[in-house]
Amino acid sequence: MPDATKLESNEPEMESSLHYAQLALLVACLEWLWRDRTDFFIGANLTVYFSREQLKTRDFRGPEFFLVNQTQRRPRKSWVVWEEGGQYPDLIIELLSPATAKTDRSLKKVLYQDRFRAPEYFWFSPETLEFEGYRLVGQHYDAIAPNEAGQRWSEVLGLFLGVQDETLRYFHSSGELVPTPEEAAAVAQERADRLAEQLKALGVEPEA
Questions:
Q1: Hey, which end of the chain has fewer CB within 10 Å, N or C?
Q2: What distances in angstroms separate CA 198 from CA 65, 165, 189, 207, 208, one per listed residue?
Q3: Range of the domain at 106
Q4: Per-residue pLDDT tens for 95-110?
Q5: pLDDT at 62
Q6: Which residues lie closer than 8 Å to 110 by C-beta, 6 or more apart?
């Protein structure tokens, strides 16, 4: 195999600012939620290198978003399967666009099912809001049925994925939205301000 240290990602630019924003949102929310964990890697528009033939034909495949569990949390230029103990992504999310939707629904779905054996595969269109999810059952992907809110459960994440305000978001099993870092900070500040007002009402001056 080639020197894996030289294998940089070979992914094209994303389709639009909507796609960039959606990808950044998925990464930021999960990294914030799992900020105390060191045993996962999130790939954002990175190539997954998995075979010598793939390198020869330059048939590169890189999901917009993928998650690998039980691995070291550190920066990588790409995901090189043979340098990672043979690990493939545990969860993949593709962001559909007019140029990629057909491939994402067909060729990539077959690749992730048959070669990657990725336990879960989702796709979402930031433009049309099309959202589907699949779980590997035996040799094939079975569709993940949505709940009443239109959310689909991810066993890999231990979270729901669902569309809110025209974006794909994570939700706890309770239905509570997983916030962005900025949303979490705003909530924390609001709680602190409310507590300060309550203390002042009791005649207690909050500490600065």
A1: C
A2: 44, 33, 14, 13, 15
A3: 4-177
A4: 999 888 999 999 999 9
A5: 79
A6: none
